[in-house]
Write a structure and sequence with these properties.
The model has no long low-confidence stretch (mean pLDDT 88). With 135 residues, this protein is mainly β. It has one domain: Jelly Rolls. The strands form 2 sheets. Strands 1-2-3-10-5-8 form a 6-stranded antiparallel sheet, with no helix packed on it. It has a 4-stranded antiparallel sheet with strand order 4-9-6-7, with no helix packed on it. It is globular. 0% of the residues lie in helices and 43% in strands.
Length: 135
């Protein structure tokens, strides 16, 4: 017997260290074969100002960038400013409240700058693909 029928639907292989920062994070990007292969997520608690993606880039898949409060008692408690640049013209958007940004396949985006943080931000980067890559 190999185990319960639905064991393959669970994984604990989701705790990794960020490639650049070395900080702990939750990710499925190292598991291209998990599930049906159409989901990739990185989850960070951002606790200090920093640039995540310096150079503009695009993907062949859609992406959702979620900027959320890290306060479990009040999901509106967001005291930060995050700069997101979109398109070839690098149109600047400043996020100052919990926000989800949809990035269609092929749309250039970056840099992504966590310019001011008075409180931590929970950042989820969700891609509708099993293997994350940049064009």
């Amino acid at each position: 017997m190999t185990g319960p029928k639905y064991d393959k639907l669970f994984t604990t292989d989701c705790m990794v260290r960020g490639e650049k920062s070395g900080e702990p994070m939750i990710s499925t990007r190292q598991m291209a074969g998990f599930g049906d292969g159409n989901f990739s997520i990185d989850c960070f608690y951002v606790t200090y100002s920093r640039v995540f993606s310096e150079e503009p880039h695009s993907h062949s898949f859609a992406q959702y960038m979620c900027f959320l409060s890290a306060n479990p008692v009040d999901p509106r408690d967001f005291d930060a400013e995050v700069e997101v640049y979109l398109g070839e013209e690098r149109e600047k958007h400043v996020i100052a409240s919990p926000t989800i940004v949809y990035i269609p396949a092929g749309l250039s985006h970056g840099p992504l700058n966590f310019a001011r943080l008075s409180k931590p931000v929970l950042f989820l980067d969700v891609a509708t693909v099993g293997t994350y890559s940049r064009l």
